[in-house]
Design a protein that fits this description.
heterodimer; A: alpha+beta; Cytochrome-c3 Hydrogenase, chain B; three-stranded antiparallel sheet; 8 strands; B: alpha/beta; Beta Polymerase, domain 2; two-stranded parallel sheet; about 25% strand; elongated
Amino acid sequence: MAETLNMTVNMGPQHPATHGVLRVLLELDGEIIVKATPCIGYLHRGVEKLAETMTYNQALTLTDRLDYTNGLSNNLSYCLAVEKLLDLKIPKRAQYLRVMLAELQRISAHLLWLATHALDIGAMTVFFYAFRERETILGILEQTTGARLTPSFIRVGGLAADIPDTFTASVKTFVDDFPARVDEYETLLTDNIIWKKRTQNIALLSREDALNYGITGPVLRASGVKYDVRKAYPYSSYDDFEFEIPLGRNGDIYDRYVVRLKEMRQSNRIVKQTLEKLPEGPVRAHALTVVSPDKADVQKDIAALIRHFKIMAEGFKTPCGEVYSSVEAPKGELGFYIVSDGTNKPFRMRIRPPSFINLGILPKMAEGLMIADVVAAIGSLDIVLGEIDR
Amino acid sequence: MSMVRNPVEALQESFGDAIRKVEEFRGEISVTVDKSKIREVMFFLRDNGNFLYDMLIDLCGVDYCGDAQRFEIVYLLRSSRFGNRITIKARLQENEDVDTVMDIWMAADWLEREVYDVLGIKFNNHSDLRRILLPDEFVGHPLRKDFPVQGYDFEKPFSVQLEEESNG
């Protein structure tokens, strides 16, 4: 028998199926992967270092740019960590609105995942369907926060502003409409024989491996582990709402797809409940040294004006200590570990990036797969390089 | 839920003086252990039937520049069975190494590489300890407090940087 040599192929960093600037070195025996080595860092901006030079309010803007499909959850996770440090209680209305915005954002992030993942595997139609609804959500978010991708809307102490008058009506229209839209995606994929052949029993991830590699989010739940930060450590009044945690059984690409589709339905359910239960009241905590006053007060009250300037220019000081706080982002557990030395800037701001840790499984997952399946496997992990590289 | 024992008490009982400090802040417990005992402590927390911390949620480093024990490594563990979290910390001096925990939780593989990359802390017996976020030829460790935010070559014009690069 003739001796064969393995071939090394460079996938990325500029490759449409790697969802950003991810480079994977593939060592191939024919079409089978022998070894896959991800090379990351092309988008590294030093967010954790930059945060040390910024006041707590300024550092918020850095979080928008981590997972740029998911700005509001990133804001929320950061604000919860700083609020925990300050021991600040947030008004109920703000908590409910935070939940509503985060869940809308989750739907939009999952839609982006569905669109690109299906496109990677060759189902192009889904892309247009998913982007139609994503556009509606981004429209609603833009109306509210003023930005499509970088909202910085959830602030320490509450929200930047209350919702506009048209908000509830447009969210309600969307929420009533959305379950039928998910049905549409399902008719395109769930029982599609090509889709099943490309996804079932491919890139399997066992429960033990998932835990050992610290995987979180839909990828972990597709392997049958019931861990969702919203249920395990409820934050921002998540325990006021009814929802289920969808689980998979086999831990293959298909299960990850099913879990995410079910999650969209659950998110829709949560948004619906927040609309029904939304209480009246302020959207910012009463904390004079931390939360800047309303614009109307700034214009007529000298004390409010001074406070506004002080908070904008100097920021606020936090007590010494270390806190970790996390939320269930669409990708998994997004945590902030903040060390405070009592000044107005974080001494250390560590981000626990779910995409980074989930990508760590790729070398193991890709072993023995075909090249085309690696594309599907990367898609099923749902990574965003802005968060991995920070 | 059968949380029979408090992990802090169990750790103090089993490791005595190696448990340096126990802190509680905003409802979170963190235990500082002697860095030479870190692997024993981690094996204990993962395998003891009362705790079963089977997930390494996060691992990061903090630079307390100026302290005798300059660096702190922070391990955040979670038990998927009991749903508890605990923070374990270890302090080290500059130029000191710490043992890897990647054979206890594979999640530590990339996380330790990142700590090595940004803080320059070496992990003994790590199978593949090289930079992960920054390029291999990068000089310095940016999350150290004595590393300037702009970097070392900020003042140099780009043309000079290119020239230096092409000259090797």
